Amino acid sequence: MDSTHLTAFTVFMGVIGALYPEAIADSTEIMSPRILLPRKCVIRVVPGEQFVMTCKADPGLPDDFTCVYWLVNNTFPDAAYTDGRVSETEEFTSQDGRMIQKSLVFQKVTAEDLRSNFTCVINSPAGIDRKTVKLTPIHKAVNYPAHQDPAEHDGGGILQDVMTASRRSTPTITDRRTGVP
């Protein structure tokens, strides 16, 4: 550690000691902040749907100097989404100060979001932690009522042919020119 970092660390320890003397008395190890959620690096989303991505973090030592924020492709969300389609919620801190939460709210997930990197950052005097995630698309399954034929939804086109073919016990090959099986 060079003298500049050592001096900064000494000042930091003095501030922590003044604010939290029990932390210094109980342990010489300072708890670094850490991201608790999101846990995964890839989150599955439904394109076109609203989505909320939450970052929960443990500040290590509760203090007033810790902040949690999101970055989108290494820039702040309000700069990345000038149209307001994606916004950041206010920071929430638990009563005991052991958890800080901040969310990104997507009014509608788009293809642009699927190409972006989203990074949750916690920054405190005790250190920094970050977690970068990507969004990947999933498609909603279409659920048809039990009494309804799915072929009704595509006007009797390709799906009708597949449904009809799947109901036959043996496949039938039909000559397209004559229409004769």
From TrEMBL:
This is Uncharacterized protein. It comes from Dallia pectoralis.
